[in-house]
Amino acid sequence: MQLRAPPRRLGAWLWALALCLCLSGWAAPAWASDGEGDITLSSRYWIDASGAQSVDEVAAQPAETLVKMDGFRSFSLGSSALWMRLDLPRLEPSQRWFLLLSAAAFTNEVDLYQRGADGGWTRQRAGDHLPVAQWDHPDQTPVFAIDAQVQGPVWLKVMNSPTPTSPRLQLLTENSLQTKRYWTFLMVGGYLGFGLLVLFLGWVHARLYGDRAFVAYCFYVAFMLGFQAAFTGIGGLFFWDQSARWNDMAPAVFMLWLTASGIWFVREVCAVSRHHRGVDRFVVAWSVFGLLYPLLYVNLQTPATFAVLNLYGLLSVLLSVALCLWTWRLGETYSGWMALGFLPVHLGYPFPALRSAGVLPDSWAMQYAVLIGSAIEIPLLLYILHRRAKDFNENRARLRALESTDPLTGLTIPLVLTLRLRDALRRSRRYGHRCGMVLVELANHAEIVEREGREAGDRALVVAASRLSEVVRDVDTVCRVSDTRFAMLIEGPQRPDQLKLLAQHVVARGLERVPTLPVELTLRFRLVSATLPDAGDSSDAANDDERLMERLHRALDRLAGEPRRVVLHLPVRMPAGV
């Protein structure tokens, strides 16, 4: 079954959300003061290989040892320390000024040094090795206050391992900083709230359809929300502000769990186990590795373990695309839609991955590319899963119906008729009324096959089943009990004269012209009817249905020897021993 395109309203909401997230990064107050902006390229830097020198020792270095920051770049520091000298422009003393280290929510240690009025150094601290609650100015990324009254250079010390760091420095007034915060909290908070809503809907679908793909989807969304909270610094500011270690580890741990659950999700939706056992085992092992690798990474945190983390993420993207396309080629329709559903995140993932590897510098796009992609991806995947589950549920309903229906005519099978007949007999005895049973035979079926072929004979049986179903009520049962015979259970209360009238309608409906047959060929029905049970019948209820059907079949066989007679109403009396 082809997947229909998402409704226009859903697409409009997705694009609106993505646009708002983009605008949040570019929003800048119209009243920006002189001196505000990015001052990264106006700085000079020096790398302390020992990582132990004090600010006095660094400030005493000859000016020629400092290198001008002529472009945005990454630094793989290891145990070294990056010192940056910032010669700030003259600042308006009436404003409160702040230095923002943007896109650096997971930098280990950041210290700002500025000389006070007494000539001594004033130190402000931030970074993942310190609980956010203990920062001098708690925020999602390191923020430092600048004293506009004090002239002279400001020194910034940055330490980060094992990931590279690429500092981006913005000088902002208090109003600009607050505006930036409001936009960020609004958009990231809206994203997290929207993600929680989608997560709840996924859990509801999991309970509704009993499909493991929805369970995997819920884990995927939960880890995606955790990763974004950690990666943007919102988690460290609001959720785990007292835990420095978890704030440091959370982005990597959530990234591994997110990737592992994503591969598990792809495995469930693409039904990999149905196509190749070896590939399925590899995919399971790949997911388990991602779930367990954080134990090793947290305890070691070496460049080698970080390289494995990055390699695992990039290869998982390729693996998920390969699995979707492979199973799509094998006939899994929804695998192709899954590949398209993952596309927004797959397009955004290389930016933070390359940033972590030190290939690209930090920027707003590096930090929010995956967030924007996932804001589009998460609801799309839920819609695809919903369509898939709905189609599978309809297919299962059809299969269950095939188990209880005749494959040619669509009528119920004899077993269902037997159960309903027994129930009807019990109700008739309990309430003192009668029901009816009619056994109908398509008498000229052999003639139709002989003249028009077997296919025409099958069409005649289908038309016969349709016309018999039209003359009874919804509560009655029509069943094909043999090749050319049909049984009709007429629920009570039912009088003999009503049953005789029904028999006339059955014969008349058969004589109507069948469009797919020649004009002279009509459906000639022969039938036997009976009201039951007999008021004086006390035989075992479990055997009543079998004896009744045998009696009706024998009567219909005898009726075949009387060509001029097509209807027989048989009074049913089944004394013991018959």
Distance between the termini: 55 Å
Shape: rod-shaped
CA-atom Rg in angstroms:
39 Å
Quote the average pLDDT.
84
Which structural category fits the helices and strands? alpha+beta
Described by its quaternary structure, the protein is: single chain
What is the overall number of helices?
17
Low-confidence stretches: 1-11, 21-32, 574-578
Strand order of the largest sheet: 3-2-4-9-6-7
What fraction of residues sit in β-strands?
5-15%
How would you sum up the major sheet?
Answer: 6 strands, antiparallel
- Helix content range of the residues, please? 40-55%
Count all strands and give the number.
15
Explain what this protein looks like in three dimensions.
The chain is of the alpha+beta class and 578 residues long. It is built from 17 helices and 15 strands. The strands form 3 sheets. The protein has a 6-stranded antiparallel β-sheet with strand order 3-2-4-9-6-7. α3 (174-209) packs parallel to α12 (364-403), α10 packs antiparallel against α12 (364-403) and α14 (445-452) runs antiparallel to α15. The chain is rod-shaped and about 125 Å long. The chain starts with 7 loop residues before the first helix and ends in a 9-residue tail after the last strand. Mean pLDDT is 84; it is low at 1-11, 21-32 and 574-578.
Fold topology:
Layout: H1 8-26, E1 37-38, E2 44-48, H2 55-59, E3 67-68, E4 81-86, E5 97-102, E6 109-115, E7 121-126, E8 143-146, E9 154-159, E10 168-173, H3 174-209, H4 212-231, H5 234-238, H6 244-270, H7 272-275, H8 277-300, H9 303-329, H10 333-348, H11 350-356, H12 364-403, H13 414-431, E11 435-442, H14 445-452, H15 454-470, E12 477-480, E13 485-490, H16 496-510, E14 525-532, H17 541-559, E15 567-569
Parallel strand pairs: 14-15
Antiparallel strand pairs: 1-10, 2-3, 2-4, 4-9, 5-8, 5-10, 6-7, 6-9, 11-13, 11-14, 12-13
